[in-house]
Amino acid sequence: MINSIKETYKDFSTFLKSPIDQPDPIQTREQKVKRLFSLLAIDIPIMGVLMAIVYAIEKFGLINTDKHKMVMLLQQLPIWWIILFGVVLMPLIEELIFRLYLRFKQNYLARLIILLASLTGQQNKIIVETLLKNFWVNNFRAIFYFSAIIFSIVHLANFEYSINILLFSPILLAPQFIMGLFLGYLRVRYNLILGILMHALHNAIFLIIPIIFMSGAVEKLNVKTNSYSLKIEEHTLKQMDISSSFGTDTLNFNGTSLKSIIAYLLEKDEKLIDCSSNLMADKKINLSFKKFSKDSFDDKKTILKQLSQVYNFKLERNKVIQLVWEMDLQDSTKLLKHKSSSNGNSSIISMSSEEIKIENANLVQIAKELSSSYNKYIINNTDLKGNFDFIIPRKDFNELENLLQAQYGLSIRRNDKELEYTYINFLKVE
Q1: Which terminus of the chain, N or C, has fewer Cβ atoms within 10 Å?
Q2: Domain limits of the chain?
Q3: What is the tens place of the pLDDT at every residue in 364-416?
Q4: Which DSSP state fits 392?
């Protein structure tokens, strides 16, 4: 293996000194496999060193990669989708765009020009083809390096723009530039498929590393007093399982957004909450609270205070006149026909293209679900207690109004109402 790596490095170095559009004379399967894995063995330590340099620069506070597109995708999308996208789709797409044309015989633009020239006569076809081939041979070095440069520059879009990002861009983009040289070499000396495989293996290795480091929850707070215990953990990767449970003296959230938790603690609809940073508000949190004593203190205010210290935010309130739809009770007899017979405490909400099915939910929950489904701010304006079962066929909003009144004895009326908005001001965005 060592000899194979040495041979690959020698051939690669010779090629870089004077790139020419000429395949390796040895095209056996064994030779291709050796080149692929030898080049990968050269690639991994180089990338490791470059990543360490970038990490050091970030630790000195010169750049911030928290908003790197890949980091944000890992926070927002399931891991399987990230792997599919990064290991299968992107290598295929990027190799087709940036490396397919590096062989003159497969350069479809050149072939199109030659085809168009042939329409004007065989002599013109020969002249144009000769000119293009001469240009290709004489300028192949520039063409090859240009493909690697463009490939690296495109990846600058992964970073959030700042002056420091531009200043350090030669270092930040060095991994993509070097990778572009590796992949271009495989494309020219062997074939496009080998480049796609190298690209896929490279991405798989360097996706697994951050996924391993980012998996699990990071403890942000773990406090225990005579009165209560509170534990806050933060997920870096997107969580598939989101749950919450509430008891007399306990409160638990799993994989829930910071904004949703704050909304619950404030007893406000999320539609009435805005924030200075969606990145911070969307952080996925595990929160576990348990009250020990019967001391008189506000559980929610205590948790909110701790959260504000951990995530460095302040809450600002202002009142705004907004259009709302108030749900009022017109006929209790009709509504009580739909009273839930379930003995459980859980509400079940299921949606399809044909209907919205709400089981064992109170009117506040029903208004909230209708609000979400119809993109209207609907609020419950009745004092009637109890849980109900609703089946709402998918209709436009006007038909919904008629259905609620005719079948459930509820009316919806439009009203301009003064509402209190809460603004989460993150003082220092991480």
Answers
A1: N
A2: 2-214, 217-311, 313-430
A3: 888 888 887 888 888 888 888 888 999 988 888 889 899 999 999 999 988 88
A4: E
